[in-house]
Amino acid sequence: MRILIADDDPDFRGLASRAMRREFEGAAITEIGDRAGLDAALAAPQGPDLLISDLSLNWIDGFSIFDEVRRAWPGCVAIMFTGTGDEEVAVRAIKAGFDDYVVKSPKQLRRLAAAARAALTRVETRRGLEENRDLLTQELYHRLHNNLQLVVGLIAFTARSIDEPVARRRLDDLGRRVQSLSLLQERLYRGGDFRRVDFPAFLGQLTEDLIALDGRGVATRRTLEPRMLPVDIAVPLALIANELITNALKHAVAGAEPLVIGVAFRSEADGAPVLEVADNGSGQQNSEAGSGLGGRLVQRLAQQIGGVVEVGSKDGGGRICRITVRNLARPG
Amino acid sequence: MSNHGAEPGQAGLRVLVVEDEFLIADYLVAVLEDAGHRIAGTAATAEEALAILGSGQAVDVVSLDVKLPGGLDGIDVAEWLRATAGPPFLFVTGSGDPAFRARCEAVQPLAILQKPIDPDRLLRVLAGVAAG
Q1: Is the CB of A189 less than 8 angstroms away from the CB of B120?
Q2: DSSP E strands, chain B
Q3: Quick check: helix, strand or coil at residue A226?
Q4: Whether residue B74 has pLDDT greater than 80
């Protein structure tokens, strides 16, 4: 337990020190009466647990001391102990982040000790709750991913038990959809911000995974501009990307040229994100982003995020599919 | 070298699967067997895994779930494998906690695969082992 006591009046510093020593046995107390003293305290390798500061000192005010100490040690508990303040100062102190305010007088020393004890307990409780929250988040995350793994496993087992090839393929598609959502979920957690996700990083990973799953070693051309997307846009767009890339791989059959899948993510001039999946395949052009379950999913999910779907043929064979998310365009 | 020196046969690698969720273990086994690997054994706890590894059973690679019931976890098994120059191992984990990940990385696994795993990525890691 380390305590800083900042006050110009050495008698009061002494009184406060004694009160603190009585309350916190074995506490290391540093009295600060001038700039050099404060600088020495700030340069100490270990920060204080508690700061007790007067409001008006000849060389500084209590708010500045508080700012300097908190900047160095954000966790330090602080109490303003002053006789020159009024209600307004007390409110200002609490708003600035002091944990308590005690009117300075010899009779109030017992109150100062109690206030210090209470403030430290509060901070400890808060830290404990934060730790608990972190543990809980990790536990939930772990559970979620274990359960997603169970779902993927169950889908795979079911697929294996079905002889009919079309039904089996559909279940494999389902497994892939769950897997792509899991991949996004992982990005979300790893980014540390639960509201935004590094979408191009996800897209690069998804492309790699789907190409590997395809097994033909199809080449890719990736153009991924960095951008964080809000999660309510990222989830539907992730599922759309999964459908488009899977579809490109299914329908694209290599012709004279080796097969290349292009995956691009960029922003329009007005800020609208654009997802583009292209292939140069010569296979039957299912120019439906609209028929079949995959196509329906793309249309519905695009609708949800204000996405405009464009499907076109490329010169020299192949197909390009573009989703422009108008919901994220700047109003012009 | 303990017991992983033998060349894997045509039938692929002999994999020890350590995973406490039985269905997930079954899934991993199915993925591995489909790809032509063999299962050296399955263990639901670190203690079971260590018993198999200590029994002289031939194991080419170990797939380790990190969080396991009981006193020891997957990282403990990994440390034992490192200390005894045992077969190489990879982690399959549901945890994304960065501190936890750092602990996993410290024991130098072949890979850390996030659940739900991409079966292909698992197989690619094993292909790397088979290639030496």
Answers
A1: no
A2: 14-18, 38-43, 61-65, 89-93, 112-114
A3: coil
A4: yes
Query: What pLDDT score does A236 carry?
Result: 94
Question: What is the tens place of the pLDDT at every residue in B47-57?
Answer: 999 999 999 89
Per-residue pLDDT at A283 = 62
Give the amino acid at A324: T
Distance CA A296, CA A16 (A): 73
What residues in A contact B115, CB-CB < 8 Å?
145-146, 148-149, 182
CA distance B99 to chain A (A): 11
* Inter-chain residue contact B27 with A146, CB threshold 8 Å: no
ipTM of the complex: 0.76
CATH 3.40.50.2300 for domain B14-130:
yes
Residue A70 contacts B, CB cutoff 8 Å? no
Per-position b or e across A215-238, b if 16+ CB within 10 A of its CB: eeebeeeeebeeeebebebbbbbb
Domain boundary among A97, A129, A161: A129
Distance from CA of B51 to the nearest CA of A (A): 25
